[in-house]
Amino acid sequence: MGMAIKVLLADDHLVVLQGLRFFLGTQKEFRIVGEASNGREAVQLCEQEKPDVILMDLMMPDMDGIEATKVIKQRNPNVKIIILTSFSDQDHVVPAIRAGAEGYQLKDIRPEALANTIRAAYRGEKLLHPEATQQLLSHVSGDGVETTAPLCPSELTPREKEVLEQITLGKSNKEIAHDLYITEKTVKTHVSNLLSKLDLHDRTQAAILAMKNKWFD
Known about the structure:
- This protein is an alpha/beta fold.
- Helix content is 52%, strand content 13%.
- It has helices at 14-25, 39-49, 65-75, 90-99, 111-123, 130-140, 158-168, 173-180, 184-198, 203-212, and strands at 5-10, 30-36, 53-56, 80-85, 103-106, 127-128.
- The longest helix has 15 residues, at 184-198.
């Protein structure tokens, strides 16, 4: 097994920190390198500990999670930040993604799903909770993403459509590979191909476009 993924926790609720500490401590692939109780501490610990991934709460004293995300991404653009919060409304989702967060999950997330989100962020993938994706969809309606696809969905192969539908459900490449009985490498190829055909830059844009056009309703 390779080196463990270094994870920094940032949350002002002790119970949440304890829960994350317990779960991540049972996973050999993760190593907790620090715990912050506010955004300013998160920024400082990030400089000191050089984590790979940060689990960031939004509502914290001194400096909130969005401002901390902005500062960290400016200073350490390679650090992956996953927002872990109780808020799924547009007023929180949109600023967090704009600040540079790679993931957005709610605190009721299942432990294994959280582990998958950390792995995905570490690999450079963006994973959003379906409710967060819906909020982004609402925000960009008529702005930022075309209301009709650059290419008709029929231009996608049946397998690419299946992969895209899984993306709209907020699933990682690993989860898609498991559900469709294909390798993760094959999933990555399909994702790359469908993004190219749709003239999009990332899977979040693909999910929003598919949902806006109701391709899988």
